[in-house]
Amino acid sequence: MSIEHRVASPDPDYSGLDGAHPREVIEWAARSIDRLAIATSFQSSGMVILHMLKDIRPDVPVLFIDTGFHFPETLKFRTKVVDLWDLKLVDLRGRHGSVEGQEREHGPKLFERNPGLCCHINKVEPLQEALEEFDGWLSGLRRDQSPLRSETPIVEAQMLPSGDEIMKVHPLAGWSSTDVLTYVRDNDIPTHPLFAKGFASIGCYPCTRAVGPDEDERAGRWDGQGKSECGIHTFGKTGGALETEAEQ
Ligand code: SF4
């Protein structure tokens, strides 16, 4: 018996999205993707998308991957923003449910011994499981964040472990960090408290450090661990970008 899998949007209309203002991309996603989510850790790019999205489609679930290893400042800031903008927060937890649960299974400091497995258990798996309920999601990836992200398309298909495809939308792919900061300043958007202390990209506390002015935004993530992505943006790529008119 053959199993039919969902494909990413059978009737897409991406024409003109490349180069469009992020608000237009979000409006398109809100219009075109029925079961839409956003995943964010409440950093500046995510805050910009949330700020636009809350006026366009306030019902969109906000997925937060609660690894158990977040800085206390991140958890406090998350609560503040959720209250401020009345967001529909969905906390996602890995299969062990807690740091203690993970330590019982894998021993202490898995993040030092095998950060790939630690990210898989705490980030990739719970997000994949949550995304099975959606047709697409918004993410704050930008091309200027790191060489690995320099080809980020506005829209791409992503295959889930079930074999279903969903759409992954990056409204800020073409924006620079300056564009983001300008939008944040002009719209009085609160920023993560560690941002002012030199943390340009903020993940789990064991795997994040502040960066210097000449470093890539993501240079402080997994520094010295031979890793630069947690895996949530690299799994299930099904052939790159869905074509936009500009990219054909
Ligand atoms: S970022 Fe570090 S602590 Fe967080 S899930 Fe990945 S390896 Fe574990």
Write the layout of secondary structure elements.
Elements: H1 22-32, E1 36-39, H2 44-56, E2 61-65, H3 72-85, E3 88-92, H4 99-106, H5 110-113, H6 115-131, E4 136-138, E5 155-159, E6 165-169, H7 177-186, E7 237-241
From the spread of the alpha carbons, the general shape counts as globular
Structural class determined from secondary elements: alpha/beta
Number of domains: 1
Q: Kindly state the number of beta strands.
A: 7
Query: Which architecture name does CATH use?
Result: 3-Layer(aba) Sandwich
Order of helices and strands: HEHEHEHHHEEEHE
Keywords, separated by commas or semicolons:
single chain, 248 residues, alpha/beta, Rossmann fold, 7 helices, 31% helix, disordered C terminus, binds iron/sulfur cluster
Can you walk through the features of this model?
- The chain starts with 21 loop residues before the first helix and ends in a 7-residue tail after the last strand.
- The longest helix has 17 residues, at 115-131.
- The model is unreliable at 240-248 (pLDDT under 50).
- It is built from seven helices and seven strands.
- The chain has a single domain (22-247), classed as Rossmann fold.
- It is of the alpha/beta class and 248 residues long.
- It has helices at residues 22-32, 44-56, 72-85, 99-106, 110-113, 115-131, 177-186; strands at 36-39, 61-65, 88-92, 136-138, 155-159, 165-169, 237-241.
- It is globular and about 50 Å long.
- Helix content is 31%, strand content 13%.
- The structure holds iron/sulfur cluster (SF4).
- Residues 67, 69, 111, 115, 118-119, 122-123, 203-204, 206-207, 230 line the site of iron/sulfur cluster.
